[in-house]
Write a structure and sequence with these properties.
- By secondary structure, this protein is an alpha+beta fold.
- 38% of the residues lie in helices and 19% in strands.
- The protein folds into 3 domains: 190 residues, 2-Layer Sandwich (Heat Shock Protein 90), CATH 3.30.565; 153 residues, Ribosomal Protein S5, domain 2; 174 residues, Rossmann fold (3-Layer(aba) Sandwich), CATH 3.40.50.
- It contains 23 helices and 23 strands.
- The strands form 4 sheets. Strands 1, 2, 3, 4, 5, 6, 7, 8 and 9 form a 9-stranded mixed beta sheet that branches. A 6-stranded mixed beta sheet has the order 15-17-16-18-19-23, with helices on both faces. A 5-stranded mixed beta sheet has the order 10-11-14-12-13, sandwiched between helices.
- Helix 14 links the parallel strand 16 and strand 17.
- Helix 3 packs across helix 5, helix 13 crosses helix 16 and helix 14 crosses helix 20.
- 38% of the residues are buried.
């Protein structure tokens, strides 16, 4: 029997209630702070964007940021919010200066929502404006005013705005800020705003050369030629070719890091191929031109349209509502500036054509086997027992993939548990036959020659690029023992070697599953380490029944459902700044050097069933 649909069914929420009820609409996923796209970092970005806009308008060259006990504060030295409108800017939806396109022509935050979302989703939020020797301050709790200055007060501090906020644990649960994620964000702000100085807990972020500095700092491998750096009124690009497989892009719109690309990144990929084809007067394949490219592009657009509130992908087709298309603008810029550059730098031009010819030869070498592999994959699709797909892929909408996950697991029992426990709508499972091949030092031919790798590549749909990646999260799910760790390492090696952009763009994760279950007749605790186990035993008491899970297959589907549901614990696989993929692979998968032996001995934790004492030294050495 359906519920009555009456006038009483219609409810209106005020601004803060709606934000708190549907935070995902405003900041994407919540998260615990371990991933760069977790909501707490979106809160920081929303505050920072306002300060950056002041700098862009020519007001204030310094921004000070402090992190203390999970509370962040941001102090800029711009003009300061007009004092009489301080409350409206912090707590009145659709209020802000950025609707005035003359004042903030190429701003990121155009909807007047960002700072209000920070306010509503913080247990404590303070905003204070300093303007022409006067100040006002308001303290909020979850969007409600606690203390408010009704009148202007005298102030000796420089003009600007101060915002402090503590994300609300009622919304985010337990969380912690990661300095490295904040620092990566701040470096991007510095690269895109040359002349700006950002101080974070005493550390300085400053760039003189923009995107040239970004690539110089990010690239750890040897490049084929010096970085090409080109600037225009509303566009800046920098690029070179490395030695890795795939393509790597850092793209930005109006200072916003568009981690999922968009029309500007697509336009750059097309334009770079066209310009190089034209310059050399050769019909090179675009895939050969872009193989191993490492590039950064930043453009400024009037009234940009993003595909979500978190602004990670540009949807705009035009530079301005009545202007030329982004595609034409980027094409025309590169056709002129890159062509001029290559004429002036013949050694760079020579290095580029040499790299393209190497990529072309490599591609042609595997063409025959690639054709056979595709035929095998096509047949396997009809009955691929390795892949149990999810229903969401029956929907052709690309954005639906943002919610999908592929678990890569090993062994029938583990695959069975996950398959029975998963959400069939959004979670898929790919089963490995055993330990995958060690692909270290092999060429990309092996991806097609090895049936398992070929089917995995096919399941992910990443043969050409990540544009059509079928799963937003690729999760390695193996046992937490030596064999499981080895399988993880072999899979990470495969992705690092042939599809590093999957890792660079934060799609690869390790599934964390509990090591222990501690329970009595009334309570059950799942514990992920010895500390959690001790705490659970202390709470339950002497009657605690302790079970040690030795493998994923031992966990029943009913229990597994808890570990891959809303509270899933995922550890992201990251390539750290200044890290060479070649050096990483050589360290972990190369010859068994003393350095690697020392690392393994120091980092491999041997779990013994219900025994908390350290293993003997000779056992540790053997490990």
């Amino acid at each position: 029997m359906s519920a009555n649909y009456t006038e009483e069914s219609i409810k209106s929420l005020d601004w803060k209630e709606h934000i708190r009820l549907r935070p995902g609409m405003y900041i994407g996923k919540l998260g615990d702070g371990s991933s760069s796209d977790d909501g707490i970092y979106v809160l920081l970005k929303e505050v920072m964007d306002n300060s950056i806009d002041e700098f862009v308008m020519g007001h204030g060259k310094t921004i000070d940021i402090q992190l203390t006990d999970n509370q962040l504060s941001v102090r800029d030295f711009g003009r300061g919010i007009p004092l009489g409108k301080l409350k409206d800017c912090a707590a009145k939806i659709n209020t802000g200066a950025k609707y005035d396109s003359e004042a903030f022509k190429k701003s990121v935050g155009l909807n007047g929502v960002g700072i209000k979302a920070v306010n509503a989703l913080s247990s404590n939020f303070t905003i204070q404006a300093f303007r022409e020797g006067k100040t006002r301050k308001i303290d909020f709790t979850r969007g409600e005013v606690e203390i408010e200055d009704k009148r202007d007060r005298s102030a000796s501090e420089r003009s600007g705005t101060y915002v402090a906020f503590l994300p609300d644990t009622e919304v985010f649960g337990s969380f912690s800020w990661k300095d490295e994620i904040i620092e990566a964000m701040l470096w991007n702000y510095a690269y895109l705003n040359t002349g700006l100085t950002i101080q974070f807990n005493g550390k300085k972020f400053h760039s003189k050369n923009g995107l040239l500095d970004l690539l110089t700092d990010e690239i750890a491998e040897e490049t084929q030629y010096p970085i090409i750096h080109l600037k225009g009124d509303d566009i800046e690009v920098a690029f070179t070719h490395g030695n890795s497989y795939g393509e790597e892009y850092f793209s930005f719109v109006n200072g916003q890091h568009t981690t999922q690309g968009g029309t500007h990144q697509g336009a750059f990929r097309e334009a770079i191929a066209k310009t190089i084809q034209s310059f050399f007067k050769k019909s090179f394949e675009a895939v050969d031109i872009r193989m191993s490219i490492i590039a950064a592009i930043s453009i400024k657009v009037i009234e940009p349209v993003f595909e979500s509130q978190t602004k990670t992908k540009l949807g705009s087709q035009k530079m301005a509502p009545d202007g030329q298309t982004i595609r034409n603008y980027v094409n025309q810029f590169l056709a002129k500036e890159l062509d001029n550059y290559l004429h002036r730098n013949p050694n760079t031009a020579k290095a580029i054509i040499s790299k393209i010819q190497d990529s072309e030869k490599s591609r042609k070498d595997i063409q025959g086997i690639r054709k056979l592999a595709k035929e095998r994959a096509k047949k396997a699709k009809l009955h691929n027992s390795k892949l149990r797909d999810c229903r969401i892929h029956m929907d052709s909408k690309k954005k639906e993939r943002l919610h999908s996950t592929l678990f890569i697991t090993e062994g029938d029992s583990a695959s069975g548990s996950i398959t029975k426990a998963r959400d069939v709508q959004t979670q898929a499972v790919f089963s490995l036959r055993g330990k995958p091949l060690n692909s270290y030092g092999l060429t990309k031919k092996i991806v097609y020659e090895n049936e398992e790798f070929n089917l995995l590549q096919n399941a992910l749909n990443i043969e050409e690029d990540l544009e059509n990646l079928r799963y937003n999260k690729v999760v390695i799910a193996t046992d937490a023992d030596v064999d499981g760790m080895h399988i993880r390492l072999l899979l990470i090696t495969f992705f690092l070697q042939f599809f590093p952009e999957l890792i660079r763009e934060d799609h690869l994760f390790i599934l964390q599953t509990p090591l222990f279950r501690v329970r009595n007749k009334k309570k059950t605790f799942y514990c992920y380490d010895e500390t959690e186990k001790r705490e659970a035993v202390a709470e339950i008491g002497k009657q605690a029944e302790i079970t040690r899970f030795k493998g994923l297959g031992e966990i029943s589907p009913d229990e597994f459902r808890h570990f891959i549901g809303p509270d899933i614990r995922l550890e992201p696989v990251n390539i750290k700044k200044h890290t060479s993929i070649k050096e990483m692979l050589n360290f972990y998968m190369g010859k068994n050097t003393p350095d690697r032996q020392k690392y393994i001995i120091e980092n491999l934790v041997i779990e013994q069933d219900l025994i908390e004492e350290e293993p003997p030294e000779d056992e540790a050495e053997a490990a």
